[in-house]
Amino acid sequence: MKIYTRTGDAGQTGVIGGRVDKDDVRVEAYGTVDELNCFVGQAMGFMQQKQERYEDLLADLLQIQHELFDCGHDLAILNKEVRAYKVEAGLVDQLEAWIDKYDAETPDITRFILPGGSLVSSTLHVCRTVCRRAERRVVTLARTQDINPEVRRYLNRLSDLFFTIARTANFRENVADVEYARSAEVFRRK
C-alpha cells in the first residue's frame, strides 16, 4: 500500500460520507484531536523513562489514545447514516473515575496554578490546552453541522483529567505546583 494517494492535491480530503476542503471546520476539529493524540504520545514517551512511577498513567493514556482515534472517527462522519458513532457516555464516566482517583493522590489547591514543573507535567499541561482547543473546534463545528455530542463532553472532561494528572506527575516527581501569585482563592477545599 502506498502512503500517498494524490487525491488531496487539489485541497480536498475524504471524510466518512463524502469529501470536504482541507480547511473545513470538520477537518480542523478532528485534526486538532489528532494533534492532541500526538502530544499524549509525547507525554507517554517521557513517562516511559520512569516506567515504574507511571505504569498506571501509561495504561490509562494508551486507552485515551484509542479513544481519541474514536473521537476523530466520529468527527469525520459527514453523514451519520453511513456509519455509527463510537464515542459513548460511558467513556466520560471512566474519565471522571480517573479524575477522582488521581486527584485524591495530590495535595489540595485553593488557587490557580501555573503550568509547568516536571517535564511530564509540563507536557500534560500542553495536552490540556490542545484538548481545550479541540473542544472549541468541535463547538464551532456543532453550530452548523451534526456531531456526536458525546465527543464534546468527552473532550471537556478529558481536559480536566489532563490538569489532574499534570498535578499527579509533579507530585510523583516531588515537584511542587507553583500557585499563580495574583490569584484569589478560587477552589474549595476537599
From TrEMBL:
Could you cite one Gene Ontology molecular function of this protein? corrinoid adenosyltransferase activity
Quick one: which pathway? Cofactor biosynthesis; adenosylcobalamin biosynthesis; adenosylcobalamin from cob(II)yrinate a,c-diamide: step 2/7
KW Repeat (keyword) present: no
Instruction: Read off the Pfam families from this record.
Output: Cob_adeno_trans
Catalyses which reaction? 2 cob(II)yrinate a,c diamide + reduced [electron-transfer flavoprotein] + 2 ATP = 2 adenosylcob(III)yrinate a,c-diamide + 2 triphosphate + oxidized [electron-transfer flavoprotein] + 3 H(+); 2 cob(II)alamin + reduced [electron-transfer flavoprotein] + 2 ATP = 2 adenosylcob(III)alamin + 2 triphosphate + oxidized [electron-transfer flavoprotein] + 3 H(+)
**Keyword terms of this UniProt record:** ATP-binding, Cobalamin biosynthesis, Nucleotide-binding, Transferase
Q: Where is the Cobalamin adenosyltransferase-like domain?
A: 3-169
Q: What is the E.C. number?
A: 2.5.1.17
Q: Could you say which protein family the record assigns here?
A: Belongs to the Cob(I)alamin adenosyltransferase family.
- NCBIfam families cross-referenced by the UniProt entry: PduO_Nterm
User: What is the protein's given name?
Assistant: Corrinoid adenosyltransferase
Source species, please? Answer: Paenibacillus chartarius
